Amino acid sequence: MIIDKFQRVHNYLRISLTDNCNLRCFYCMPDEAYEFTPASRLMQPDEIFSIAQKFSILGVNKIRLTGGEPLVRKDAGEIIQKLSTLPVQLTLTTNATRLHDFFSQLTEAGIRSINISLDTLQPERFLFMTRRDQFTLVKNNIDLAIQKGFHVKVNVVVMKGLNDAEINDFVAWTKDTPVHIRFIEFMPFSGNKWTSNKVFTLQEMLSVINKRYPTEALTNDEHDTAKAFTVPGHAGTFAVISTMSAPFCSGCNRIRLTADGKMKNCLFSKEETDLLTAFRAGKDIGALILESINAKYAALGGQMNTDFEHLHANEIKNRSMITIGG
């Protein structure tokens, strides 16, 4: 097993397939002229499989594919097929713009749960936030995924003064549709212009929702990052990922692998372990994995605390979100 010095078992690996994306969400991508990683520096399909296999041997039993947008990668189907042969639960996070081309491959690979990023239900705001006019395509693909029986979670990054007025619109969506909304507090990453006054917290969200709806808390697993709720009688649910106001580090079981093969033991860690270079050199990456996890901080990469209102984003050493993976 992969266990850190705080006795946290790490059995969940998030693999970024690419830092490329066909949307341009400002909180994820630093600027429009961003230069994507050259293909030669990305993990190749066989390398992804072999590195993931090593994690599986060490105890990982769940793998999520992320990006950028993982489905823009030309060999995404091949990678998905290879990873589906491992003894893990395979899942995917996507912006859904290309989802319609992959339904059959996802089904064949045994993927039944998909996380889809959608920060607004208003087409004009979608264009403003993503700089791409693809709201209808994304919404239609979400509806189609639900119709096909996929368990669909919709990730909504909530930013004060931008889309916080839509919170109850998302909750209303759960009334007759088995969609699972995950509101995410705005987090600081390199280049995303984070400030504390843009954070809409867990308590603020619940206050807004409870003014319109009665809610019931659902039981959460010790490793859950989201605090889940339901409105009685609704077909779907909603949850809040409260990284800034109420972190959940004590139950963390996650490891991240960037598209260029760097292991991050925390979303906010400034340290990285270069697994790809070691793998290409024929070295034992298992020892590197265990060493990285043993060096993991108790919370938030050792760079932040829960007093986010006095946090200065420029003091945090990290990548942009798109180069880490969702």
Compact overview of the structure:
This protein is an alpha/beta fold. 26% of the residues lie in helices and 17% in strands.
Features:
single chain, 326 residues, alpha/beta, TIM Barrel, 12 strands
How would you explain this protein's 3D organization?
This protein has one domain: Aldolase class I (TIM Barrel). The relative contact order is 0.16. It is built from 10 helices and 12 strands. Helix 1 runs parallel beside helix 2. Strand 2 (62-66), helix 2 (76-83) and strand 3 form a beta-alpha-beta unit. It is globular, with a radius of gyration of 19 Å. The chain is an alpha/beta fold. The chain has helices at 45-58, 76-83, 103-108, 123-130, 135-147, 167-173, 202-210, 275-280, 285-294, 321-324; strands at 12-16, 62-66, 89-94, 113-117, 151-158, 179-185, 216-217, 226-230, 237-241, 254-257, 262-264, 273-274.
Number of strands: 12
| CATH topology (level 3) name | TIM Barrel
- For this structure, what is the CATH homologous superfamily? Aldolase class I
DSSP helix count? Answer: 10
Structurally, how many domains make up the residues? 1
CATH architecture heading: Alpha-Beta Barrel
Specify the overall morphology.
Answer: globular
The sequence of SSEs as H and E is EHEHEHEHHEHEHEEEEEEHHH
Order of strands, widest sheet: 7-8-9-6-5-4-3-2-1-10-11-12
What's the main sheet like?
12 strands, mixed
Distance between the termini: 24 Å
Helix/sheet category:
alpha/beta
Q: Average pLDDT, to the nearest integer?
A: 91
Helix content: 25-40%
User: Which CATH first-tier class would you pick?
Assistant: Alpha Beta
Strand content: 15-25%
| Radius of gyration from the alpha-carbon trace, in angstroms | 19 Å
